[in-house]
Write a structure and sequence with these properties.
4 domains, 5-stranded mixed β-barrel
Length: 777
């Protein structure tokens, strides 16, 4: 009898290959859908197909969606009333003194055993920074290494506390930012300060997030109040320079006391700010007699010019904040009519600059005065006759304009006023001449810069901005002036201005693309001229020196990247949206530009700038601009490739959450400031720790507009994905079942017939011989 045996499968046959392909294809489809569904743009298209989405800005004052406040339990004895005076991201404030000693009072009255057995909530640096309201007044526990211990003297109190220790702790999770612990009882067995360094676990009450100065600017540190420290090991830790320790004291200064002058005598800087500018010049060696040498009988002579440059150098040494406080608002016509009365005083001038002349100094004078040149400006005053203003700085664009006629202001010192019968103009000295353009003039003035000029900003300050780095001290004035200008216009109006300028942006980049084509043609022609325009041109290219060939390749690659950038901007503009690509790839040309983006705000932090680190009282920013705080907001757009755009905005809508665990859809307009190098808080990327920061476009605006999504039902994209996933699984099952039919038929028709027992027999009737049994011979 012929035995039927199923042949082995030939996996190289076409049938088996199709079988494997049909099994793998649905699985690959599912993986592809999972990858694509994570793209916000794909999900948005799916949602628009099934239920049109209509983003609309929420009306100002309406609460943001999905904002919840979690209830929290305070430590026994802590009252809620004093907590209302505590403000995060600020220095210690006098209004917080009651709450501060209230925390110490509760700790003193609570037995140490009860605190130890309470088992505070274990937290890290990021949790305290992002959720201060959740942990304030609660018992928390942290772990880390002691890096610094300093004895502090508290303000007068009724608790009998005459001293405590400020302990700077580096968190155990490796974050380079410190946690401050104010401890009442240090380890008595460790009399030496060096012996106090080591790994500790601290259980204490969380007070606030403190803003403090360190070597590279401002930092933020959680502040805890504790009875004692628990050392986890006896070994001491070596000093670690990676932690961002404070460089200034952070104890309270009670300026409301009547004996303030005895406790804190005025410094020379504060005395100069309180005096008039005439008195300050006198202290600097410019007495009334020395100023009188610039007599009003004649024009500025050649002999008097060196002395004028010396005085100009003195003006250059004062900061913009001090000059703003010293300047008078008297009309220029009144000052010119009474020159002797205002000699040595700083006056505000307003008008238009019609001509600029650059005066270079000799090499030895430039080195001695630290000033290579100064500028003479023909200044047409709004309320007086034309004058000449000598300044140490003017906008760079004025030197490139053929005939400038630009709105300008200056805080100037009257040097001399020639007699009425003299044809010479009055001469003023100023540190700088501010520029306030009112209309766009490409390539000198962009639309955003013209809007900033109309809002009162000195657009010439943008010349000092350098991208790809931190915010330098020379950029501070530009930052706060731009922040002040953004606060003078409504957020919706700023959005409309940006949207209205989108067509001009598209045309600008279209012209840029044409210029790139011309530059490429010129580059190839220059290369052909170099190697010889004959039939062997391609071969002759490789005969060029390496330097020339690499330069050509580098320039050609740069033009190619520029063309790709222009196409991306134009593509987005055709869709009615701004592209963020120029902010990342061409930041220097974008400074001052106004854009509007839609995205998701994932992190918002409030920054306090209303107080000074060295003493209580308003800062110069608060006095000059009325800015006490602003908000730093990280926004992710659909084309930012998961890199953030950092917006500094003056205010937030009512109910808008803060922290790093949010996801709010917003529309926000802002002026581009620079490509900013920063270290995300809690990332551990500190310079001192060897880490590298990241670059992010920094923009300044008024406020975000929350976008409400209107569509029927839930998120349609998730439903579509679920249906496709189930369909793919069903397809896999159907293909597997179809190919299994042959196996099933073979078992039923062949194997079952050959190996089944005859009818009426069972396995019990099988007869086995002894030789068939095991272990039998």
């Amino acid at each position: 009898m012929v035995q039927l045996v199923k042949p082995a499968r030939n996996h190289s046959s076409r049938r088996e290959q199709w079988r494997l392909l049909l099994l793998i294809l649905p699985l690959g489809l599912v993986i592809l859908l999972m990858a694509r569904i994570r793209d916000p743009q794909t999900a948005d298209r799916i949602n628009r197909f099934f239920a049109p989405i209509k983003p609309r800005p929420v009306v100002a004052g309406s609460p943001a969606p999905n904002v919840r406040t979690e209830p929290r339990d305070l430590f026994p004895g802590i009252r809620r009333e004093p907590l209302a005076s505590i403000k995060d991201n600020t220095y210690f404030r006098n209004s917080e003194t009651q709450a501060w000693f209230h925390f110490f009072d509760v700790l003193q009255r609570t037995p140490l055993e009860q605190i130890s057995s309470a088992h505070g909530v274990e937290v890290d640096y990021t949790q305290l920074i992002d959720q201060p309201e959740t942990y304030r007044g609660r018992l928390v526990s942290i772990k880390g290494t002691v890096r610094q211990v300093t004895r502090q003297t508290p303000a007068p109190n009724d608790l009998g506390i005459d001293s405590y220790d400020r302990v700077v702790i580096q968190p155990a999770d490796g974050v380079p930012w410190p946690i401050f612990v104010y401890c009442l009882e240090m380890d008595a067995d460790r009399p030496e300060r060096s012996a106090l360094m080591g790994s500790v676990q601290v259980t204490g009450l969380f007070f606030k997030n403190l803003s403090y100065s360190w070597q590279d600017g401002l930092g933020t540190a959680p502040v805890l109040v504790s009875r004692s420290l628990n050392y986890s090991e006896s070994t001491t830790g070596a000093p670690n320079n990676s932690i961002r320790a404070p460089i200034v004291t952070d104890d309270w200064t009670d300026v409301e006391r009547q004996d303030e002058s005895k406790q804190h005598p005025p410094t020379k800087e504060s005395a100069e700010q309180a005096a008039s500018f005439r008195d300050v010049l006198k202290l600097a060696g410019w007495s009334a007699e020395r100023l009188a040498q610039f007599d009003d009988s004649q024009a500025l002579s050649v002999d008097q010019r060196p002395e004028a440059v010396e005085l100009l150098r003195r003006l250059r040494s004062f900061d913009s904040s001090s000059l703003e406080e010293w300047a008078h608002k008297d009309a220029a016509s009144h000052v010119l009519a009474n020159p002797a009365e205002f000699r040595g005083e700083l006056i505000r001038l307003s008008g238009r600059v019609t001509a600029v002349t650059k005066h270079r100094l000799h090499a030895e004078d430039a080195e001695r005065l630290e000033m290579p040149a100064y500028f003479g400006c023909a200044f047409e005053l709004d309320d007086a006759e034309p004058v000449t203003v000598l300044a140490t700085r003017v906008p760079r664009a004025w030197l490139q304009m053929h005939a400038p006629n630009e709105p300008a202001t200056a805080k100037a010192l009257l040097l001399k006023r020639p007699s009425n019968d003299s044809p010479a103009e009055a001469v003023w000295l100023a540190k700088e001449v501010a520029w306030h353009p009112s209309e766009a003039k490409e390539p000198f003035v962009s639309f955003g810069e013209s809007l900033l000029g109309r809002l009162g900003m000195d657009v010439g300050l943008l010349d000092n901005i350098r991208s790809r780095g931190r915010i330098r001290s020379a950029e501070r004035e530009a930052f706060y002036q731009m922040l002040d200008a953004a606060g003078r216009i409504g957020p919706q109006q700023l959005v409309r201005f940006a949207e209205g300028n989108l067509a001009a942006i598209e045309e600008k980049w279209r012209a840029e693309e044409r210029q790139i084509e011309n530059d490429e043609t010129k580059l190839w022609l220059r290369l052909m001229t170099t190697v010889g325009a004959d039939w062997s041109f391609p071969l002759n290219v490789f005969a060029l020196p390496f330097e020339d060939l690499s330069t050509f390749e580098r320039k050609l690659a740069g033009l190619h990247q520029r063309r790709m950038l222009a196409r991306e901007v134009r593509k987005r503009a055709d869709e009615g949206r701004y592209s963020v690509a120029p902010l990342f790839n061409d930041p220097d040309s974008q400074i001052g530009q106004l854009i509007v983006v839609d995205g998701a705000a994932r992190r918002v932090v409030r920054v306090d700038v209303g107080s000074r680190p060295e003493a209580e009282g308003p800062s110069d920013v608060a006095r000059r601009f009325g800015i006490d705080q602003y908000y730093e907001m990280e926004v992710f757009t659909d084309d930012s490739q998961n890199y953030p755009l950092v917006f500094c905005v003056r205010e937030l809508p009512a109910g808008f959450p803060t922290g790093s665990s949010i996801h709010i859809p917003i529309r926000v307009a802002g002026f581009f400031f620079k490509d900013w190098l920063y270290h995300p808080r809690g990332s551990g990327l500190g310079d001192a720790a060897g880490g590298r920061g990241q670059y992010a476009p920094l923009l300044i605006g008024r406020a975000p507009l929350v976008l409400a999504i209107e569509h029927s039902g839930k998120d349609t994209s998730q439903l579509v994905f679920g249906v496709l996933f189930v369909a793919a699984l069903g397809g896999i099952w159907a293909v597997a079942a179809w190919f299994a039919r042959g196996d099933r038929r073979f078992r039923e028709s062949v194997l079952a017939e050959r190996f089944s027992l005859p009818p009426g027999q069972s396995l019990n009737e099988i007869n086995l011989s002894p030789v068939d049994e095991p272990m039998k011979k």
